[in-house]
Specification:
The protein has 278 residues and is of the alpha+beta class. It has two domains: 9-86; 91-209, Immunoglobulin-like. The chain contains seven helices and seven strands, in the order H-H-E-E-E-H-H-E-E-H-E-E-H-H. The strands form two sheets. A four-stranded antiparallel beta sheet has the order 4-3-6-7. It has a three-stranded antiparallel beta sheet with strand order 1-2-5. Helix 1 runs antiparallel to helix 2. It starts with 8 loop residues before the first helix and ends with a helix.
Length: 278
């Protein structure tokens, strides 16, 4: 029984309290030893009818009270459920490509729920299964991560933990096409801010990456950062060393002369075109 739940026997006691006077009057009226004067018959009948009506009203009042209590209890349960949903975390495991290159795979743990996750723990699912060599290689890499081996104390909403996991090129060189048969499952347990336990089940299935290709030269932002790094190194070498940069310098008069030359050529072209037409 919940702490806010009212016991039903209270309503039965209330009903008995309302019906006792009615039963008392009815017993006097129809008792075998009762002698009712003829001039007071309608008074007794009226009293009995009033008592029965009072009993019916009392019963309906109790029914209404019980239904109101049940509705309030349902509303309280709904409010409590909504409150728990608003603080419920949801932790999942993802694999994503690095911005450095499509072949570099990042191991990512993310809280996609609505609340903060506490005491996040990871456990290999179906641990009785014999692991493939590629699966053992990945598990060895994961075991080096402290948050995976031990636990995450907290992980906020939309919070993530990332780490490089493997390169497709390296793994393919080691294990060949069998590497795509790698499939690992993980049981993730965690708690919300109130200590309510939750768990999810995530799967790493590398067969999903089979046949996927990428065009272009990778992430544009990463390429831009590389080009900026090259420019920075070039400027650094110019400032600190003896390297020189060839610079073409123009004055305002040079620009004016250039503009006049362009205009003259344009006029000559127009003139030649008119002469050909005539």
């Amino acid at each position: 029984m919940n702490k806010d739940e009212k016991p039903l026997w209270m309503y039965w006691v209330l009903l008995a309290g309302f019906t006792s006077p009615t039963l008392f009057i009815a017993g006097i009226a129809i008792g075998s030893n009762a002698s009712i004067p003829s001039e007071n018959v309608w008074v007794y009948i009226s009293a009995i009818i009033s008592a029965i009506a009072t009993c019916i009203i009392a019963f309906l009042t109790i029914v209404l009270a019980v239904e109101t209590w049940r509705l309030r209890r349902t509303q309280d349960d709904q409010i409590d459920t909504n409150r728990k949903e608003n603080i419920r975390p949801h932790v999942e495991i993802f694999l994503e490509s690095s911005v450095v290159g499509f072949q570099f795979i990042i191991f990512k743990v993310e809280n996609i729920g609505r609340g903060l996750a506490r005491n996040v723990q990871f456990k290999l699912g179906n641990s009785e299964k014999e692991l493939l060599d590629s699966e053992k290689d990945i598990m060895t890499t994961l075991e080096k991560l402290s948050f995976f081996r031990n636990s995450l104390s907290t992980l906020g909403v939309n919070g993530t933990k990332k780490s490089f996991l493997f390169s497709f090129i390296d793994m393919y060189d080691k294990y060949g096409s069998d590497f795509y048969e790698t499939k690992l499952s993980f049981h993730i347990s965690f708690e919300d801010i109130e200590g309510n336990p939750y768990s999810t089940y995530s799967i790493i299935d590398l067969s999903e990456f089979k046949g996927i290709t990428e065009i272009g030269k990778g992430n544009p932002a990463y390429r831009t950062s590389i080009e900026l790094e090259k420019i920075r190194e070039l400027l650094k070498s110019v400032i600190s060393g003896n390297r020189r940069i060839n610079i073409d310098s123009y004055s305002q008069s040079d620009r004016n002369n250039r503009q006049e030359t362009i205009e003259k050529k344009h006029l000559e072209h127009v003139k030649n075109s008119e002469e050909k037409l005539t």
